[in-house]
Design a protein that fits this description.
Blueprint lengths: L1 H22 L1 H16 L3 H5 L2 H7 L8 H9 L5 H13 L13 E4 L10 E4 L1 H16 L8 H4 L3 E4 L7 E2 L4 E3 L1 H6 L10 E2 L2 H4 L4 H11 L5 E5 L2 H15 L13 E4 L5 H8 L7 E8 L2 E6 L6 E3 L5 E7 L28 E8 L6 E11 L4 E7 L13 H15 L5 E9 L2 E9 L6 H15 L1 H9 L1 E9 L1 H10 L15 H13 L9
Parallel strand pairs: 1-5, 3-6, 3-7, 7-8, 8-9, 17-18
Antiparallel strand pairs: 1-2, 4-5, 9-10, 10-11, 11-15, 12-13, 13-14, 14-15, 16-17
Length: 522
Amino acid sequence: MPIIGDLLRKGVQIGKRIARIEANPYQVQKKELKKLLKKAQDTQFGLHYNFEFILDAYKLKQNPRFYHKVFAENIPIYNYNKIYDEWWFKTLEGEDDVCWPGKVKYFALSSGTSEAASKHIPITKDLMKANKKAGIRQILTLRNFNIDYKDVLTRGVLMLGGSTDLHKQKDYYEGDLSGIMASKLPFWFQSLYKPGKKIAAVRDWNKKLDHITKMAENWDMGYVAGGPAWMIILFERIIKHYKVNNIHDIWPNLSIYAHGAVAFEPYKATFEKLLGKPMAYIETYLASEGFLALQMHPDKPMKLLLDNGIFFEFIPFNEENFDADGEAKPTAKTLLIDEVKNGVDYALLISTVAGAWRYLIGDTIRFVDKDNAEIIITGRTKHYISICGEHLSVDNMNKAIEKASREMDIQIREFAIAGIPQGSLFAHQWFIACDQKIDNQLLLKKLDEHLKQLNDDYKTERLEAIKNIYINVLPTEAFYGWMKKNGKEGGQNKFPRVLKKDKLTDWTQYLSQNGYKIEPAQ
């Protein structure tokens, strides 16, 4: 295909630009913020916070970092509720030039793992352009993997996402980000894209999976992308429908799986049982707010995309900067890309071409190689357990689940944890999705042992304040049934790893109403 040659030629140019970024991430980010400020200086937000004054700070040669001091002091840290209540609600009402030039015609409905209600995230033309550029870069990274990437790019690409039949409101459209992006795919990609326009528009998730399953034997897939939980469900349906041993009996040329949204480790053992041969994995960090990072080499972690319409700030994720609910304190200290350290957890603040400004996206990351901006995602600011100082992160949980499931040769499809009072002390309550018959107490013991190895604070508190650990092994259908009840089935939606307050109450009530017994009894 001629287009493949064009892409590979572009890849050489992008590769040269990436090399420049690796040379000086700080300078690239400094320029990126300047471009954002210049373009948005005449918006309502830009005029209110005097972007012109911040841009003047760039000219102060005797203090070349003064621009960030002014930027951080002028503009407060925003979470979703604050920026929506003060600014983004205007874009939903049809106002122009609120936080970014022009009118916002598309809004992504977030998966809402932190709050019950869906969030409306503005999707601007510039954000879609940036996401497409990152998507092309993602395809071009295939040349770094141990596969015949030219062959892969001549076969089908399955994108398992939300419906492209967006909900029309008075002045805008809304839907999953994956649905919005799929509805705007470039013309040259249409011949490769699956499941195709008709199936992609189906809103009912189960019907969409049924349609894909029935068409699967007619497709020659080389590349699949989507959340691991739902990709596993699709593979299982296809294998069962055609009565084959594995997915490669249907798609023998399938070579690449691009995953994101949640950590792949807990799902990897289950995923690989559905394969007939090894596949290459590419991790992506695509949120409704932007395409933040991409894995570009098989033996390296993801790299932040520093030249793609996003300016990053980093807040050390500790009690000095965050309250008990995972919200940044007004006094939180923010760092730039050259001020971070390897091995420390940071919460991300982003300013973007969609009009997010100093926006706490809710994820925590850790630098593996700060000089090359290589990171791993360690969890969510709200999705960690620290009821008595154990500071248990989602990254700790993922690794413990992966180790225990491999040692016991079991498939854990989902999991969540809650911290609960136990008299004057505390307890952890685990909920595990597994459809096999297993030794619950052995699993509990292994999880506890691995967490003690992974987290010294946890090890200490297990001797002091964490009195008990309870484990509830439930069928997978219980987890996905609860998600369906709450309108969170399919696409980018994922089960919350930490259950607190109303979410924990809703979950336990759902289990009780559907006849599931849990320990301790609620």
